[in-house]
Design a protein that fits this description.
disordered N terminus; single chain; eight-stranded mixed barrel; alpha/beta; disordered C terminus
């Protein structure tokens, strides 16, 4: 930095004489004209940082005290510098271009300035041309806007980034995909979008709460970022949905497939949640540049591919194909029809008998939902129940079944059939409703039934993992409802926690009963469940009994109740009613024993 001689403070408004070539003379400067004396205090004592610089040399000609206070330089130091000396070196070229393009009118814009301490600040600079003792100069008013710029930066970051994980949000991600589409359309580059949906994430929120769930999402974001290139964009689109943009790819699909494998491997490692280890995997859909003409179309294609991957099981990935879109349209159409069926009461309930294996008498029925589509015919529950869960209408579906089943039981009771008990399935998603108990009580009360007529069936995973499940079941059981664990045995490792649940019956999963047909490999598990349940004073129901061999085995080993085609198929209310009329006598299963 070239040092310049510093004029005295009385020289404001009067430039120092210069030698030929622009160098300043060491001769004493003449005193400032008296006409400028009354302006000097207005300049020097102004609380707004101000200075004057020479338009030709860019040297500081005068600065006020507020500028000294803000920048940390003394007046003498300022007057030995040019305005380029307080700019970052990388911005000096842009400053000179700006000065060259000025038309002499007052100007204003934000610049970065360097303080004497070395710290960079943002300054709103307002400048206007002035005559400084006959020399062309510029008067500058500077305002420190660092806090404002930082706040603006934070607001912009918040507007385009996910608050929890710090990843790009949906708006920013879509914008970057849109730019990638434009580059690809001009030729020479390709890109891929990966859509990631976590598997089994809701079970964490339901069992250990949303705080732990948020910690899992942060860990997933960290693993996702570590699995991709620095130039890729990772985003959280909402909930447990993430996405990755891989831009500037070669035309080969290998890079995206390799990234999907890395992500799947990284996610499929245990995560410590509240002292317990949980396995979190992700279903990944991949869409390439040619899968859509717009950003929205590409994102939709990746989403469609993700759904296809999820149908294959956990931790799978799939590449978008046009046929997948047709499948999605079919699914959306089915969802619309299912909503309509709920609202128009065009669903049906079948009833399957549950039999006392000792006396062969019917001791109750299970309500099973059936949907006969107006054009597609009978649609199995294995198709429309998962659809209802994905679409968020499973609660409406469960409550519809409960109303229909309760109304039918009321009719049976009125016809003299006595205390018929109906088993009704309750989805794990229903327990997220804080008014679930109230809804169930209202439905049963509206039909004039006592709670003893209803048994609520929940799966083993729901009973142990769903948030609020235990407290809701405790309330319902205190009110007189009975509770059964459906499909028991799938979570066999949780047997030790069973005694803590408000349960009346266990229903052994049909997968264990099926294997009895082919030998007795599963006999120790079945007999163990029966013995364990009896030690806890619980009744046991065997599901899916289809052969005489299974029936005999269960009777010999003390199983209390049974259900399955061997004992009775699901029937309409009209079909099962005459059988229920005879239940006081021995119930004869089809084909005899």
């Amino acid at each position: 930095m070239r040092r310049r001689e510093v004029p005295g403070r009385a020289d404001f408004g009067q430039p120092r004489p210069t030698r030929p070539g622009g160098r300043r003379s060491h001769a004493p400067a003449p005193a400032a004209p008296a006409s400028t004396d009354h302006f000097r205090p207005l300049f020097m004592d102004n609380p707004q940082p101000m200075w004057v610089y020479d338009n030709e040399t860019l040297a500081f000609l005068e600065v006020n005290r507020a500028a000294e206070a803000l920048y940390g330089y003394t007046r003498e130091e300022f007057l030995g510098m040019a305005i380029t000396d307080i700019r970052p070196a990388e911005e000096v070229k842009r400053l000179r271009a700006y000065l060259a393009d000025r038309n002499g009118e007052p100007q204003g814009r934000d610049w970065r300035h360097r303080l004497a301490s070395g710290r960079l600040i943002w300054v709103d600079v307002r400048d206007s041309p002035v005559d400084f003792g006959g020399r062309a100069a510029t008067l500058v008013l500077a305002t420190d806007v660092t806090d404002r710029r930082e706040m603006d930066g934070r607001l912009v970051h918040q507007a385009f980034h996910d608050a929890l994980t710090g990843l790009a949000n949906r708006a920013l991600f879509r914008d970057r995909v849109e730019h990638a589409v434009g580059r690809a359309a001009r030729g020479g580059t390709a890109f891929a979008v990966l859509f990631i949906d976590l598997d089994n994430f809701k079970s964490i929120n339901d069992s250990v709460g949303h705080t732990a769930g948020d910690a899992v999402l942060v860990e997933v974001a960290n693993r996702l970022t570590a699995s991709i290139r620095p130039t890729d964009t990772a985003a959280r689109l909402g909930g447990d949905e993430f996405s990755v943009l891989m831009d500037l790819l070669p035309r080969s699909q290998s890079a995206a497939l390799q990234a999907a494998r890395r992500i799947a491997t990284a996610l499929n490692k245990p995560i410590d949640v509240a002292g317990d280890e949980w396995l979190i995997s992700g279903s990944i859909g991949i869409a390439y540049s040619d899968s859509g003409e717009t950003a929205d179309a590409v994102l939709r294609s990746a989403d469609v591919a993700m759904y296809d991957a999820k149908k294959r099981g956990r931790a799978q990935f799939a590449v978008f194909e046009p046929s997948m879109h047709e499948s999605l349209m079919t699914r959306l159409a089915m969802e619309t029809e299912l909503r309509k069926a709920i609202s128009t009461n065009t669903l049906e309930v079948a009833f399957q008998p549950q039999v006392d294996l000792r006396t062969a008498a019917i001791i109750g029925v299970e309500a099973l939902l059936r949907w006969c589509h107006p054009t597609d015919g009978s649609i199995p529950p294995s198709e429309f129940i998962p659809l209802a869960e994905e679409a968020g209408i499973i609660r409406d579906l469960d409550l519809w079944v409960m109303r229909a089943a309760a109304a039918q039981v009321r009719r049976w009771v009125d016809s003299g059939l006595g205390d018929i008990k109906v088993g009704i399935n309750v989805s794990g998603k229903d327990f997220s409703d804080p008014r679930l108990v109230e809804h169930i009580v209202d439905i049963v009360t509206a039909e004039g039934l006592a709670p003893r007529h209803v048994e609520l069936e929940v799966t083993e995973s729901v009973a142990f993992e769903a948030e609020n499940a235990r407290s809701s079941l405790v309330q319902l059981r205190k009110l007189g409802f009975s509770v059964a664990i459906d499909d028991f045995g799938v979570g066999f490792s949780m047997l030790g926690r069973l005694q803590d649940l408000p349960v009346d019956r266990l229903k052994i999963d049909r997968s264990f009963i099926e294997r009895i047909t082919f030998g007795e490999d599963e006999a120790p598990i079945v007999t163990g469940i029966i013995a364990m349940a009896h030690s806890l004073r619980l009744k046991v129901v065997a599901e899916g009994i289809e052969t005489s061999e299974q029936l005999k085995f269960l009777r010999l080993n003390g199983c209390d109740h049974g259900q399955g085609y061997r004992l009775g198929r699901p029937m309409t209310a009209e079909q099962i009613e005459p059988i229920l009329m005879e239940r006081g006598a021995r119930y004869s299963s089809p084909g005899g024993d």
